[in-house]
Structures are given as structure tokens and as C-alpha cells.
Automatic annotation (TrEMBL):
Pfam families: PUA_3. Its main location: cytoplasm. InterPro entries: PUA, PUA-like_sf, PUA_sf, RlmI-like_PUA. SMART domains: PUA. One of its GO terms (molecular function) is methyltransferase activity. Keywords: Cytoplasm, Methyltransferase, RNA-binding, rRNA processing, S-adenosyl-L-methionine, Transferase. GO terms for biological process: methylation; rRNA processing. Signal peptide: none annotated. This is SAM-dependent methyltransferase. It comes from the Bacteria. Residues 2-91 form the PUA domain. The lineage of its organism: Bacteria, Pseudomonadati, Pseudomonadota, Betaproteobacteria, Burkholderiales. It is found in: Cytoplasm.
Amino acid sequence: MLIITIKQGKEKSLLAGQPWIYASAIEKVDGKPQEKAKPGSTAIVQTSSRQFLARAAYNAKSQIRARVWSFREDEPIDHALMKRRVKAAIDKRAAGWRQAEATALVPLVLGEEDGLPGLLVDSYGGPSGYLICRFQAGGVDAWKVPIVQALIAETGCPNVYERCEELVRKGEGLPLFSGALAGDAPPDRAEVTDARQRWQMDLRTGFEYPKTRQPR
């Protein structure tokens, strides 16, 4: 496991609960070279006097060098944590998700808000529809398999698709990929609605077809 030592005086933001660590705050990173080079490697974050601050996902290729998983020293970063975080996020929004129209695009996971920094998940079509995921940071990308397993288990939705936002993933040093992670891919043209409008969207890319927004 990597160890990130924070410069003296730079730990204040972490102590205040800030989940992002920039290169300017880091004094040094100790650990195996292959772990340092791997986006999303788990790291212990400590003060210059070696006091524990957090556990985080380290990415040498990102402007945000590390994203905090937990400020608790007794909380390991493992499959169980990912599954708990996914379950908590979906439970928080379960009522709205189950009551939504079949054509609504409903957010289920919202990154840092849900303790899953860089992960965005939207649902389309309810439990029998599609989960559209964006893995926008090295940490959640490294834990993709248990995250997808938890999404399927908690929603009952068999179709999970990864949407690739190229600029974001390039900035994180992550491979460019889009495609079905489980089940079938969503349609490339679908009607999407909210309380006021309806429009046509390519669910695989997020592209909105021009001149399709109409009042409901």
C-alpha cells in the first residue's frame, strides 16, 4: 500500500473534510513503483509527523493526485466498502427511482456525495431498463467489478453500460472504453422526459439530438 505524506500545514483542508488532495499538498509518496504508476492505488494519507489522516485513491496522472475514500483509520478499502457505498446511494434515492416514469433519466450515484468519488450512475427505464455509468476517476475505475456487481444486486437491473467521456478519462490517465459491462447496451436514440420537457437522446454517449426538446 502507498503512503502519502502531506506537507506541514497542508493537512488543514483534510482535517476539515476536503476529499481532494492536489500535488502541491504532497511532500512525498512512498511505495512500490508499479503501485505508484497504477491509477487508483489505495494509499494511506498521513501528516508530516506520521499521524493518520485518511485512506485515498492515488493517481499520479491526475491533477487531483488523491481522492479520499475514508477518514476512518479502521475502515478498510475493499469489496465490502464498495458494496456498502453503492447500497447506501441507491437506498437514498430508491423511492424517487421506483416512482419515476419509464422515460425519466434518474441519478442513482453522485460521486463524492455518496463516497464514491468520480462515479456517476443514471438509470433509464427502471429496474428492467439500463444503468448508465461514468467512471471518471482512477479509484472507482479500479473497483469497477464489485461496483457493477453491487449495482445489479441492489437494483435488479441486468443491463449496465459504461459511457466514456474522453477528455475526463484522458485527464485521469485511464483507457478509453465504452460498452456494456453487463447485459445489453441501451438504445442510441431514446425519448427522455422530465417534469417539463421531452427530448431525444443517445443514451450511449449523452448526445441530445438537435431540435428535439419540446414542452410536455
